Amino acid sequence: MGLALLGGAVLWLASAPRPLGPEAIPQHQANAANGELVYTIGGCINCHKPDPANASADAALPSGGAPLKTPIGVLYPPNLTPDPATGLGKWSELDFINAVQRGISHSGSNDIPAFPYTSYAAMRTEDVLDLHAYLMTLKPVAAENKPDDIPFPFILRRGVGLWKWIGFSDAKWQPDPKQTASWNRGAYLVNGPGHCGECHTPRTIFMVRDDARAFAGGPHPEGDGRVPSLRGLIERKRYKDAKDLVSAMQFGETLGYDELSSGGMGAVQTNLSKLPEADLQAIAEYLVSLK
Fold it and tell me: What ranges in the chain are assigned the alpha helix state H?
């Protein structure tokens, strides 16, 4: 009995959320314009769009509630508008950083990693603060957050705390001094706010990204079909060159680029098309370098 109690205590402590403290907030003048760019490439609206059952909801605002199918059940991403009662209006900057970069909810529990904080952790914290500043400029929407339809939610979220020991890294993205500034910009956008590896990198049996096979494609995270590889895009004749890939991100199937404006990539391509061309060129330079 004593060993069982000791083991339970160890698991309880090991699974506890590990939030950052106030020292994690850098000295930074928030830039809402850069935050809008982060919001766009992060595709925040894709998951945090309004509940489709609410016909009066503004589809342009991330008031949450649309169902997100996952292998463990249906999640309902929350309201990201600055409504004080149901959104982010009462969140501090530290609350936001802990959610985005540590996967810890405002209530203090572990977030399910369908929220891609495992990629956002690599971002510059300054960019996260800029994102927060942008969200605070949005029109507040009162939209009650729905409880997730998952089994044993408390136990599952607590178990995520154990998963984080093997599935989560707080290491920041680092530039490669051997590469160009544009390549590094593209690598940052793809691996950080763009979180492309969350879908395009296969996972181990423990649902941890297998970074030894980064961007090699694999089973779709929602459980249906497969996500293609982002490697060898030129060699496999998916695109002629980096310039061609830029055009694909800008125009998708409008200009005949197959499978870019429909299915799961439809919303992604729409977001990419809104990015500055220099960022699209950087993303393309990075992606075509993946052999």
Answer: 2-14, 32-42, 44-48, 93-102, 117-120, 125-135, 153-167, 181-191, 197-200, 242-251, 265-272, 277-288
Return the DSSP state at 183.
H
Q: Is residue 224 within 8 Å of residue 281, measured between CB atoms?
A: no
Q: Is the Cβ–Cβ distance between 40 and 26 less than 8 Å?
A: no
User: Do residues 100 and 110 lie in contact, with contact meaning Cβ atoms separated by under 8 Å?
Assistant: no
What are 290's two structure tokens? 């993946």
Cα(24)–Cα(261) distance, integer angstroms = 39
Beta-bridged to residue 74, according to DSSP, are: 69, 149
Q: Which residues does 139 contact at the CB level (< 8 Å), separation at least 6?
A: 58, 61, 81
Between the ranges 56-60, 148-152, 179-183, where is the mean pLDDT highest? 179-183
Burial of residue 224, with CB atoms counted within 10 A of its CB: 0-12 exposed, 13-18 middle, 19 or more buried = exposed
φ, ψ for residue 236, nearest 5 deg: -85, 5
Q: Which of 132-136, 145-149, 225-229 has the lowest mean pLDDT?
A: 225-229
pLDDT score at 224: 73
Query: What DSSP letter does each residue of 46-93 carry, written as one string?
Result: HHHPBPTT-TTS-TTS---B--EEETTEEE-----S--TTTSSTT--H
Beta bridge partners of 75: 68
